[in-house]
Amino acid sequence: MAVVKVIELLSESDVSWEDATKVAIKEAAKTLHNIQSVYVEHMQAIVNGDEIVKYRVNVKISFIVE
Known about the structure:
alpha+beta, 3 strands, 61% strand, elongated
């Protein structure tokens, strides 16, 4: 039987919400192994004038505990 742990992370990108999610996974993978899934819980955009300048996501990442 496997034990799965879920952590919550915040991430941001200048490019897109998808990129912000990829950044979260890439950073998490530096210290976590066996990442199984990512759930994007919230998305937010920071606007300056009439343009989006930052994309932010709140994600939940699940991984198998060894």
